[in-house]
């Protein structure tokens, strides 16, 4: 038998029927695609924002941990700075320290038998000077010309030659740069001792005042700020009395 299609021609939807859907399905599909793209972009943006927020939180946590570690180590930093400051202070003191013990030991070794000391002053700068090496002496005049360490010596010798020999011996002390004789005087009496505190008990005995300079030694800070007067000659003698002939 031959099949017969009883559906009216206008209601048939076979391949030969006319399309009556119009552009609506395409618009709907386009809207769905746009919505899908928007949702995808929104999800990706939200994910990036979440990642950035997580990174910010992580960095803030690391910053807080680093700050806490710095605060814990701040005490060590302060201690290191204090240690360096104290080391610099000790180094400065060590550099400016003068070995008086060695000088005194060498002085005791070179002291001639015919010389005896009445007073001895060892000072690191003119500001610390006692103003004279002996009683009523004027050794401070030469001492003021030495900016660094110096010895102020007052005593007596058996003769003026003994004073000269003592000056020469003083130059053998390590570090001595110059020796200045402030005064070298014989007794004004023609015989007998002068008594009292004067060491000139005989007319041939010479009383001296000597300044021994250590110019190569480090100058203390207080002394370096003071301008020193020009250095005197290696040996200066200011005798207030006329040298008499040596007696027995």
What does this structure look like?
The chain is α+β, with helices and mostly antiparallel strands and about 250 residues long. About 40% of the residues lie in helices and about 15% in strands. It has a four-stranded antiparallel beta sheet with strand order 1-2-4-3. Mean pLDDT is about 75; it is low at about 130-140, about 190-195 and about 220-248. The longest helix has about 70 residues, at about 25-95. It contains five helices and four strands, in the order H-H-E-H-E-H-E-E-H.
Radius of gyration: 52 Å
How many individual helices? 5
Helix content: 40-55%
The computed structural class is alpha+beta
N-to-C order of helices and strands: HHEHEHEEH
Mean pLDDT: 77
Name the features.
alpha+beta; disordered C terminus; 248 residues
Q: Could you give a quick summary of the protein structure above?
A:
The protein is about 40% helix and about 15% strand.
Topology record:
Blueprint: H1 24-96, H2 100-110, E1 115-123, H3 140-143, E2 150-157, H4 160-170, E3 178-186, E4 206-213, H5 221-224
Antiparallel strand pairs: 1-2, 2-4, 3-4
């Amino acid at each position: 038998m031959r099949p017969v299609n009883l559906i009216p021609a206008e209601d048939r939807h076979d391949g030969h029927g006319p399309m009556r859907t119009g552009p609506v399905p395409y618009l709907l599909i386009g809207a769905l695609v746009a919505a899908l793209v928007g949702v995808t972009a929104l999800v990706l943006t939200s994910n990036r924002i979440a990642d950035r927020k997580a990174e910010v939180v992580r960095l803030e946590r690391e910053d807080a941990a680093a700050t806490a570690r710095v605060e814990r180590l701040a005490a060590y930093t302060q201690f290191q700075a204090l240690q360096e400051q104290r080391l610099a202070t000790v180094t400065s003191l060590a550099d400016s320290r003068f070995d008086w013990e060695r000088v005194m030991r060498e002085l005791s070794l070179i002291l001639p038998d015919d010389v005896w000391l009445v007073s001895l002053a060892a000072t690191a700068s003119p500001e610390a000077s006692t103003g004279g090496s002996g009683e009523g002496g004027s050794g401070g005049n030469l001492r003021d010309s030495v900016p660094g360490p110096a010895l102020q010596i007052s005593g007596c010798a058996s003769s003026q030659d003994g004073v000269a020999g003592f000056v020469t011996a003083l130059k053998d002390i390590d570090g001595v740069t110059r020796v200045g004789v402030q005064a070298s005087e014989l007794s004004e009496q023609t015989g007998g001792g002068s008594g009292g505190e004067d060491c000139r008990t005989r007319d041939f005995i010479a009383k001296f005042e000597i300044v021994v300079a250590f110019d190569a030694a480090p100058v203390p800070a207080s002394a370096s700020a003071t301008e020193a007067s020009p250095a005197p000659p290696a040996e200066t003698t200011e005798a207030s009395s006329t040298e008499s002939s040596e007696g027995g």
